[in-house]
């Protein structure tokens, strides 16, 4: 809700979910705003997010659990819950390489 690169890439993640969302693929955004999920919902409304679910986690707990420092952070997780990869920082989710 407050991270400029996150705010910039969320509409692209919304489009990615609209394009690929299925039983085999899902974008799972986690709001870590200290004010809670209500601020996340307001953020979705402000920028027009229509296809993404919204989850909230306590900022410190999720940062420790997933071992990340900065935002945005993207994790690729398989069906078994195993991490396949991670990307620290912003990414162009509208790029063909992202979809592929």
What does this structure look like?
The chain is α+β, with helices and mostly antiparallel strands. 40% of the residues lie in helices and 15% in strands. The chain has 4 helices and 4 strands; from the N terminus they run αβαβαββα. The radius of gyration is 13 Å and the shape is globular.
Structural class of the helix and strand makeup? alpha+beta
Give the total of beta strands.
4
Calculate Rg over CA atoms: 13 Å
User: Low-confidence stretches at least 5 residues in length (pLDDT < 50)?
Assistant: none
Specify the overall morphology.
Answer: globular
Largest sheet: 2 strands, parallel
What's the mean pLDDT score? 92
Spatial order of strands in the largest sheet: 1-2
Oligomer: single chain
| Number of continuous helical runs | 4
Overall helicity:
40-55%
